[in-house]
Amino acid sequence: MKDIPMAAKFKDIQPIKKGMSSDEKYFVTAENGEHFLLRLADYKEFDRKKAEYELVKKLFRLNVPMPSPIDFGVCNNGASVYTLLSWIDGEEAEIAIPKLSKNKQYELGKESGRILRRIHTLNAPENTADWERRYFSTIDERLEAFRREGIMFEGSDIVLNYIDANRHMLKERPQCYHHGDYHMGNLIQSKSGQLFVIDWHTVDFENYGDPWYEFNRISVEYPYFASGQIDGYFNGTVPNDFWKLLAYYLSVSAITSIVWSKYCAPDRLTSILDLNKNILKWFNNMNSNIPTWYTKVK
């Protein structure tokens, strides 16, 4: 790390073990008391990390509340890529939310929805292939994997039939940049109460596609927050087509996660199977568009 230009001003560096990213993460304290987040990745990740950093800079200029980009480059004698960001001092939303009243959960959810809407004002790259083709080129393989080696559950045939019958809904969908992993664990409530978005790294579809796809990680365990996020995103007027696509994206994401969990995260398999069963309940065996957990708060 000594070849990072600002390293001479680092007073203390503490590793951060939390999170599923393969990056090495560090909490850095500078001599002047400032705090930073330092991420290190293998040099082979250079192009992807460079693209991530450029995206962060663009979104920061759009006044998205997020860590400010400080520096990017190569270190460890060319073996690593580093990203240096400001540190947001606060509490993860998934820890802060349970302490709040239902009305305050809803209001914070609305703020998260407004932030997501601002993120989505950044258009996808020019000459991007259409979303329907991009989505199904990946998802069809995952669905086939489920049919071949997934764990069936009561109603899995209902979900699969629903997915097959509604593929047309993805035709001619608009595309924009995504955060990529927008959920409460990646939202920080600062000491002043403001929400900030953290952990910007490439996940699905190079982090751009249908803006409504990004709701597939919505935190429904806190329905007032989740409902607020939807209302804040749409400024209180939710289009009918959104509900249909929400049901679609949630059901596809859940059922294709079963094979992934089976091999990569077996400790999460039970919770993912429960999620699939819950989706059937939320949408009345895929016969209703608006999920049962959605709560309209005045």
What does this structure look like?
The chain is α+β, with helices and mostly antiparallel strands and 298 residues long. The chain folds into two domains: 5-87, Phosphorylase Kinase, domain 1, CATH 3.30.200; 91-282, Aminoglycoside 3'-phosphotransferase, Chain: A, domain 2. Helices cover 39% and strands 17% of the residues. The chain contains eight helices and ten strands. It has helices spanning 46-61, 93-96, 102-119, 131-149, 156-165, 223-233, 240-264, 269-282, and strands at 10-16, 24-30, 35-42, 69-75, 80-86, 90-92, 176-177, 187-190, 195-197, 208-209. A five-stranded antiparallel sheet has the order 1-2-3-5-4, with helices on one face. Helix 7 (240-264) packs antiparallel against helix 8. The radius of gyration is 20 Å and the shape is globular. The mean pLDDT is 94.
Q: pLDDT average, as an integer?
A: 94
| Broad CATH class of the largest domain | Alpha Beta
- Succession of helices and strands: EEEHEEEHHHHEEEEHHH
Secondary structure category: alpha+beta
CATH topology of the largest domain: Aminoglycoside 3'-phosphotransferase, Chain: A, domain 2
Shape summary: globular
- Tell me what portion of residues adopts beta-strand conformation: 15-25%
